[in-house]
Design brief:
Blueprint lengths: L2 H13 L2 E13 L8 E7 L6 E6 L11 E3 L3 E13 H10 L19 E5 L4 H41 L31
Parallel strand pairs: 1-5
Antiparallel strand pairs: 1-2, 2-3, 3-6, 4-5
């Protein structure tokens, strides 16, 4: 490179956004009788994988399931997320039918107008908390779009399930290729050690 090309390249490097891969475990908790609201538990690890963090949020984590990347002014995030939903009322009824008692998870109070999330495990640094803060900022700016996109995906999924139920696929003959493996000969017992008669 010439000095001029090197200067242009360095200027671009300085302007480029930092890339961060964000790995999250997300559990969306639904309940009418315990909280009446959707709450989401986010779990993530420190960069060196030595500490686990957890936060409980007002955000419906399902809204975050339809995309893999998002950006802030400074950072480009790649989102790798495992997500699950738990209906606390159904879980309680199921355990009651088995004669067991259900203990709901202890969730912090997140009143309207209060914080969007509360850290419930660990003591993350500002850098370790930046990704969760960025997710909540994204929901504040684009929450309605995220909600509508999620509802559209759910509607399409339910329509596909109904279609397959009404029009089950017909079983088809399949071709199975396989190779015969010759059976090994029985092992020969060879006496070991010492003199033999």
């Amino acid at each position: 490179m010439t000095e001029e090309q090197r200067a242009v390249w360095q200027a671009r490097q300085q302007q480029a956004k930092k890339s961060v891969t964000l790995m999250l475990s997300v559990t969306v908790l639904h309940s009418e009788s315990y909280s009446g609201k959707v709450r989401t538990q986010f779990r993530w690890w420190s960069k060196d994988q030595t500490q686990e963090f957890e936060a409980v949020s007002k955000v419906d984590g399902n809204w975050l399931s339809g995309f893999a990347n998002f950006e802030t002014n400074e950072v480009r995030y790649s989102l790798l997320m495992g997500i699950g939903n738990q209906d606390l009322d159904r879980w309680s009824a199921r355990l009651a039918s088995l004669g067991r008692t259900f203990t709901p998870p202890s969730l912090p109070d997140l009143p309207e107008g209060g914080p969007d999330f509360v850290v419930t495990k660990g003591n993350p640094s500002a850098e370790e908390l930046a990704s969760i803060t960025a997710i909540h900022a994204l929901v504040k700016t684009d929450g309605e779009k995220l909600r509508l996109a999620y509802e559209g995906r759910e509607q399409a999924r339910k329509q596909q399930e109904a279609f397959l139920k009404a029009n089950p696929p017909k079983p088809r003959d399949i071709v199975l290729n396989y190779w015969r493996i010759p059976k090994p000969a029985a092992p020969v017992n060879v006496p070991q050690g010492g003199p033999h008669e």
